Amino acid sequence: QVQLVESGGGLVQPGGSLTLSCAASGFTFSRYSMSWFRRAPGKERELVATITTAGNSINYADAVKGRFTISRDNAKNTVYLRMMSLKPEDTAAYYCYAMGGYWGQGTQVNVSS
Predict the structure, then answer these.
(1) Phi, psi for residue 6 in degrees, rounded to 5
(2) Nearest alpha carbon to residue 21 among 63, 83, 112, 89
(3) What average pLDDT is seen over the chain?
(4) Residues 14-46: pLDDT tens digits?
């Protein structure tokens, strides 16, 4: 069955960095654009970044441009989100999403001193 398993979340101080990973299985990963979303407490889900199948087209939310980098390794069936210069407002549950309608279970990122 389809699985998307996120990892790499945790507690980090403002200005710090984290890299999230999302390991995919059960479908042909290389044929799907992939995205990262996040949901902060009391807020609606927000699209963070999207990468196309070959990684040649990438888009970011304005709030993370210049700080976050999405990438993928089709040989490893994995999509990544490198997050730098983290701010308290980046605190959220982060989810990966495959354009076929598949969601991961999420990984929590807390940015706090």
Answers:
(1) -85, 150
(2) 83
(3) 97
(4) 999 999 999 999 999 999 999 999 999 999 999
Backbone phi and psi for residue 29, each to the nearest 5 degrees, phi listed first: -55, -40
Specify whether the CB–CB gap between 104 and 96 falls below 8 A: yes
**Strand pairing report for 3-7 and 18-25:** antiparallel
**What average pLDDT does the segment 78-94 reach?**
98
Closest of 70, 37, 33, 36 to residue 52, by C-alpha: 33
Provide the pLDDT for residue 30.
96
Beta strand pairing call for 78-83 and 34-39: unpaired
Please report which confidence band the pLDDT of residue 60 belongs to, taking 50, 70 and 90 as the band edges: very high
pLDDT value at residue 100: 82
HSE at residue 25, side-chain half, CA atoms within 13 A, is 5
| Separation between Cα atoms, residue 15 and residue 31, nearest integer Å | 35
Residue 2 backbone zone (phi > 0: left; psi -120 to 50: alpha; other: beta): beta
Among all chains, which residue has been given the structure tokens 């199948």? 53
